[in-house]
Amino acid sequence: VKNSGGNHYSLFDAREKAKITQRLELEAEISTAIANKNFEVWYQPQINTLTHEVYGIECLLRWNHPTQGMIGPDLFIPIAEASGAIKELGSFVLETACKQLRQWRINNIFTGIMAINVSLRQFERNDLLAQVRETLIKEMIPGDAIELEVTESVFSEGNCHHSPILSAIRGLGVKVAIDDFGTGYSSLQRLKNMPIDNVKIDKCFVNRIVYSRKDEAIIQALILLSKTFNVSLIAEGVETKQQAKKLTKLGCFNQQGYFYSKPLPAEQFELWLTNYHKE
Ligand code: C2E
Ligand code: CA
Ligand code: CA
Ligand code: CA
């Protein structure tokens, strides 16, 4: 096609420009959106394949935008992290999740662990510990009913001052999970010293476990390590029955993924849970 080069560039520029504009707009809207209750927490079950029990739930944010529809966190979390609005959003998720958990505990709908994602930047507030403690007290939830999911970056060399904060939070009974394990830069050496209770194997390893001997070997190695280090292990991104079976056969019983359920809004999650127990 003749002259397509020039057009490509202008098309690219226009697309880039639209992206940047959207970014700036979303960034400016986050605070109002929290106030307007446009953010929602959705819930995804974590299953033990031996007992078939739903022992945990991960909280995942959604933005119900008035003009753009439902926006996923992969788009707005990086924006919120860059602008600092993640601190406000993080507080919203913690409060919403604990309020929901209290309700579910009272009605005997769910009494397991609520897992909440926490960004690196939330550690910049020196009140993360106080915030967690106060939320637990306010909602009358025992510490060991929640788990904070953090990424390896929280334990990187430049952030070594975050580990004592996590240790103090664990002092409340709260569990700490390392998210997306295996995708960051942390060495196994460092895993040894991390104040954590749970390792979440990233979905990229789970993806190909049925076909790739190498990914199978990685998961086998992690299962061994987790036993030695006395931490629990969960595989995320389980999408098929074959993956679920294979993981169970290897000894990885804690699983999460679309095969069981996609993340759902609170009401739908309750329905899913009721039907799951009937099966
Ligand atoms: P994550 O913490 O690793 O969460 C898992 C992501 O994988 C979620 O995407 C979930 O919907 C998706 N997922 C679950 N099962 C499957 C599966 O079987 N297959 C596939 N392909 N995907 C699956 P989601 O909800 O779009 O969230 C994306 C990321 O946004 C999260 O990754 C997390 O890093 C971040 N995020 C979400 N909610 C929050 C939050 O409340 N606070 C913070 N700081 N980050 C959040
Ligand atoms: Ca997570
Ligand atoms: Ca993850
Ligand atoms: Ca992730």
From TrEMBL:
Transmembrane spans: none
Top-level taxon of origin: Bacteria
Domain EAL residues, every copy: 23-277
Name of this chain's protein: GGDEF and EAL domain-containing protein
Naturally occurring in which organism (per UniProt): Litorilituus sediminis
